[in-house]
Amino acid sequence: MMQEVQNAIWQVQGQQKGKTITIIGGTHGNERTGVEVVLKLKSLIESGDLRITQGTLTLIHGNPRAIEINERGSEPFADLNRSYPTDLLMHEPTGEYEDARARVIAPFLQKSDVVVDLHATNKPSEPFIACVHSSYHEEVYRWFRSEKVLSDPNYVLAGESITTDEYAEAHGGIGLCYETGLASDLGRVDEVTQNVINLFIDQGLVEGQVEIPDGSREMYEMTEAIILTDEGFHFTEGLGEGSWEEFKEGEILGYHGESPFMALYNGVIVFPKLPEHRKVGKALAYLAKKI
Fold first, then answer.
1. Is residue 215 predicted with pLDDT exceeding 90?
2. Tens-place pLDDT, residues 54-92
3. N or C: which end of the chain has fewer CB within 10 A?
4. Is 60 exposed, middle or buried (0-12, 13-18, 19+ CB in 10 A)?
């Protein structure tokens, strides 16, 4: 029987020992596909249509307060996915909601063999995986539709290990983020739900057989952040509209005020932010290159 073990955290255990898998949706409250996938999995288990026979499954709505208001965070610029330093539970609480919520979720991440955090982008993007490049991670992400895998071995995203998947990695698990597409698009809820169920079958939590999907993936690595300065920043016309826009070495990508920002290599733009999510001193987009 599935039980709510903490606010918006549900868990079910099989009759036999096995792996511990955690699925998170709504780390950012406006990214609704993950929110709905968690609810659908919960409903399938409670109805008996999906039976966990071994291991432990934890389903989490990451940020209930942000989900309720359909915003990225509980307040402007708050970000649950920048709230998981490796030594989180050794720090004094900050008093902020996202910090408090991360402290509730962290022990479940520490105990997980596999963590899949379901996200979506605020500007158009094809689905993609964000995680460490390894054969162990491939055994997890192969169940999710994606042609690209993005890694961040040098912590370009935030300067340190601080996301849900990185926290799981730091405590011995396999963590990955699956970007399902555009945040406002709920057209893939059923597909992603089935992707997750296929993962459960492969990992032994659910009985059954599933055929390993075909398909190779392109590997990318994050290289640098474009930081917003007091001068402001605007992209060159035609750029900054979505993730995976390609650029060439020597191309002007945009301008800090009147100063051009030139690409020093061939690559792609990822995670360009909406204007309302930009903050001086913080990244407004990131660059990556194929490896």
1. no
2. 999 999 999 999 999 999 999 999 999 999 999 999 999
3. N
4. buried
| Closest by Cα among 274, 27, 55 to 130 | 27
Please indicate, yes or no, whether the overall pTM of this predicted structure exceeds 0.90: yes
Of the pLDDT bands very low, low, confident and very high (cuts 50, 70, 90), residue 146 is: very high
In a domain, 214, yes or no: no
Please name the residue ranges forming H helices in the chain.
Answer: 32-47, 64-69, 97-110, 135-141, 164-170, 189-203
CATH number at residue 282: 2.40.50.630
CA distances from 150 to 28, 223, 244 (A): 19, 11, 11
- CB of 241 within 8 A of CB of 123? yes
Is the same domain home to 31 and 154?
A: yes
Domain limits at 256?
221-290
